[in-house]
Specification:
Oligomer: single chain
Structural class: mainly alpha
Radius of gyration: 15 Å
Largest sheet: 2 strands, parallel
Number of strands: 2
Order of helices and strands: HHEHEH
Strand order of the largest sheet: 1-2
Number of helices: 4
């Protein structure tokens, strides 16, 4: 099987075991990154945005569980309502705050 992108994976193979394994591995790696971030910055919550948020039903529960187990507390994970625009708005906001 050749899968070109995430959209194709979730659209064509949503219930396959390999899809579950891919998202389990994704949530494991993302949890390590987010734990580092949470340790350094102590955020009140983490917002998941961009195109990956469209596939949140495949990984959010696993990610929340992994974070809770590794951090020892529940760090709220939220989905961005801005979708793909969230990254560019965040970058523009950072640029603005660094220059004002």
């Amino acid at each position: 099987i050749v899968i070109l992108n995430l959209k194709e994976l979730v659209d064509k193979y949503p219930n396959e075991e390999f899809t579950k394994k891919i998202f389990d591995e994704f949530s494991e790696h993302l949890s390590f990154f987010l734990i580092e971030l949470a340790t350094l910055k102590s955020p009140d919550c983490i917002i998941i945005g961009g195109n990956i948020a469209k596939a949140s039903s495949f990984f959010m529960e696993s990610l929340e569980t992994k974070l809770h187990q590794k951090l020892g507390y529940k760090l709220p994970l939220l989905l961005s309502v801005l979708g793909e625009n969230s990254a560019i708005i965040g970058a523009a906001s950072l640029f603005y705050h660094l220059n004002h």
